[in-house]
Design brief:
Immunoglobulin-like; globular; 8 helices; alpha+beta; AP-2 complex subunit mu; 25 strands; Beta-Lactamase
């Protein structure tokens, strides 16, 4: 993982440096100063760095480590220092270097990132109350930290090592848990109606108001398959029938690039697709995923453009909803980019409100509500400036028509929450809410 970490100023001077593993010398910092800050080639040891103002935050590694993990740590460490000091300058680092060393001891254990939660760390390493903090306060904070380590305080040290994301003693009069599954539908459809690309960016957002130290768990589809970023199936498993499922099998849900909050017990998810965790208090993102197989598109948009003569063209749009009749989409907006030569547009439609925005050079067709299994048609007569070239046969220069919407209780990926359970030693009653929210992301149709 990380062999060393340094903070440099713009001149290449080391303000703070820490070595975490053997086999690397302190003068390794000279290589970064000479070869990176001086814009020379780096041929051996890998330096991963970010810049904040005139400061460099640098991680050094000699192993084949996932760079994304280290960059995530560097940005989290930068944010943590900002939470401690309010700003990040050479003078602040020089004045409070002892606190930064203490923070490094907590957030990196032999070069491996640990908890980065400010609310937990500040209980062990008190932040300076103001920029005039005395050395006595620094020493007091260090003594408190040392004492806690010797005593093995359950309320603080075990909290850091085991459940750093949740404080003990949380109480609510009404215990509630909200689980929202958001999915942004991204699709590009060619002129002939062929799907060029389609995928879903999804995440599960949770908001918990639960007392004590609750254990939450919920299960997803019986047939759920995971794939890695390389596209090959890592594992597909039908939990209900206890057997493997083929890639892209009908009715199965295939998730890619899944990322979980640190509270999730990954072993339990790998074995039976149950997401089990002790949640942080309040709102947080539990899971992020991507799906590109077996996608259910909520709308079908069919455009047809024809030239009618005398500098006019006719655009006919047909918008059909493919979701169940009991559902209703809201804030539906079809946006059709127009050429700079467009002067005016006349409309006839079976529903919604249409207008030509001269400022945006686009036709906007809006529905406050769009019921399921219905369709509407818009006919637009487009008038162009005289002697302007026809836009009909220059498809490569026309941006696609875009569609925005929000649809509740519809999952484009097919993901389903089978159950949601909350257990806590006091055995209180929990009110549970589950929602599915599909939204238009990059939803485009060429014409």
């Amino acid at each position: 993982m990380i062999n060393a970490l340094f903070l440099f100023n713009s001149r290449g001077d080391v303000l703070v440096g820490r070595l975490f593993k053997d086999g690397i010398k302190r003068n390794i910092s000279d290589i970064f100063r000479i070869q990176v800050i001086s814009n020379l080639d780096v041929r051996s040891t890998t330096f991963l760095h970010i810049k904040h103002g005139n400061l460099w935050i640098v991680a050094v590694t000699r192993s084949n480590t996932d760079a994304a993990v280290i960059f995530e740590f560097l940005y989290s460490f930068e944010n943590l220092l900002l939470q401690y000091f309010g700003a990040l300058t050479e003078e602040l680092i020089t004045d409070y270097f002892s606190i930064i060393y203490d923070i490094l001891d907590e957030v990196l254990e032999f070069g491996y990132p640990q908890t980065m939660d400010f609310s937990t760390l500040k209980q062990i390493i008190p932040p300076p109350e103001n920029l005039a903090m005395t050395n006595a306060n620094n020493i007091a904070g260090l003594q408190k930290r040392t004492t806690l380590r010797k005593q093995g305080s359950i309320s603080q040290l075990n909290l850091v090592s085991e459940i750093p994301w949740r404080k003990p003693g949380i109480k609510y009069r009404k215990n509630e848990i909200y689980l929202d599954i958001y999915e942004k539908v991204n699709v590009l459809i060619s002129q002939d109606g062929r799907i060029v690309k389609s995928y879903i960016d999804g995440f599960i957002d949770m908001n918990t108001h639960l007392s004590g130290m609750p254990l939450c768990k919920f299960g997803l589809n019986d047939s759920l398959s995971l794939t890695g970023s390389g596209g090959g199936a890592l594992d597909g498993y039908d939990v209900k029938n206890k057997k493997a499922i083929p890639n892209a099998a009908a009715g199965s849900v295939i998730l890619e690039d899944c990322k979980f909050h640190q509270c999730v017990e990954l072993d339990r998810f790998d074995s039976d697709r149950v997401i089990q965790f002790i949640p942080p208090d309040g709102q947080f993102e539990l899971m992020h995923y991507r799906a590109s197989e077996n996608i259910n598109l909520p709308f079908k948009l069919t455009p047809m453009l024809s030239e009618t003569g005398n500098g006019t063209m006719e655009l006919r749009l047909n918008l059909k909803s493919l979701f169940p009749a009991k559902l209703t989409a809201t804030d539906v907006i079809v946006r059709v980019p127009m050429s700079s030569n467009t002067i005016d547009v006349d409309f006839a439609s079976s529903g919604g409100k249409a207008k030509f925005s001269a400022e945006e050079k686009a036709i906007l067709w809006k529905f406050s509500k769009f019921a399921g299994l219905t369709e509407h048609t818009l006919t637009a007569t487009i008038t162009q400036a005289k002697n302007s070239s026809s836009w009909l046969n220059v498809s490569h220069s026309k941006p696609p028509i875009t569609l925005n919407f929000e649809l509740l209780m519809f999952s484009s990926s097919g993901i389903v929450v089978r159950f949601l359970k909350v257990s806590e030693k006091s055995k209180y009653t929990t009110v549970k809410w589950v929602r599915y929210i599909s939204q238009g992301g990059s939803y485009g149709v060429r014409y």
